[in-house]
């Protein structure tokens, strides 16, 4: 077994630096470490982005017969909207350029509600008898789901930082006090008395 592994890797030399570079690349792109500028841009995007600003030409949009009551209108018109994006396009920076990198990395680690088993997304709506309204509703659902799954830590206020520093110092003092007390206890046990 070991001989086979040596035969496979005999022509390859391993060095430490490329591996570390690779690990650093992976952790920066998928680990959620982003610059402060990227995080601020992502927060601004979350606050202002709406379904109307989504580049709809990137998505596959199809229409089919809706279910439910509606009589002849339902039977004759295709008003149910299905919006999809294949797995090779969803969260790919070339196609999902409109989603900031800080949010894209969060969506990579957490599946959203409309993500398929293959890794793409699929949204459907047939709440209205109008196909444009249903299409807009699909994009609205997508934006709401992205916003619900994107979270950033709040910046700490000055008084909170001061409070945590005080707690840290107090904890340190207690620890040192108990450590000293335990040390004194052990020293008192080991003293020899001359009589």
TrEMBL record:
GO terms for cellular component: mitochondrial large ribosomal subunit. Residues 170-195 are annotated as: Disordered. One of its GO terms (biological process) is mitochondrial translational termination. Residues 53-189 form the Prokaryotic-type class I peptide chain release factors domain. Residues 175-195 have a biased composition (Basic residues). GO terms for molecular function: peptidyl-tRNA hydrolase activity; translation release factor activity, codon nonspecific. This is Piso0_002180 protein. It comes from Pichia sorbitophila (strain ATCC MYA-4447 / BCRC 22081 / CBS 7064 / NBRC 10061 / NRRL Y-12695) (Hybrid yeast). The lineage of its organism: Eukaryota, Fungi, Dikarya, Ascomycota, Saccharomycotina.
């Amino acid at each position: 077994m070991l001989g086979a592994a040596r035969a496979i890797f005999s022509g390859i030399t391993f060095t430490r630096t490329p591996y570390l570079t690779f690990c650093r690349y992976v952790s920066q792109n998928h680990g959620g470490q982003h610059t402060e500028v990227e995080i601020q841009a992502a927060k601004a995007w979350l606050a202002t982005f709406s379904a109307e600003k989504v580049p709809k030409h990137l998505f596959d949009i199809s229409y089919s017969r809706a279910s439910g009551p509606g009589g002849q209108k339902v039977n004759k018109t295709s008003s149910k909207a299905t919006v999809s994006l294949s797995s090779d396009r969803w969260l790919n920076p070339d196609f999902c350029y409109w989603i900031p990198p800080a949010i894209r990395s969060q969506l990579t680690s957490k599946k959203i509600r409309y993500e398929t088993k293959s890794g793409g997304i699929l949204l459907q709506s047939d709440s209205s008898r109008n196909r444009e309204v249903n299409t807009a509703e699909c994009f609205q659902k997508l934006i709401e789901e992205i916003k619900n799954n994107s979270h950033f830590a709040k910046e700490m206020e000055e008084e909170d930082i001061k409070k945590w520093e005080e707690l840290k110092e107090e904890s340190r003092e207690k620890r040192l006090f108990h450590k000293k007390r335990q040390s004194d206890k052990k020293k008192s046990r080991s003293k020899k008395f001359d009589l």
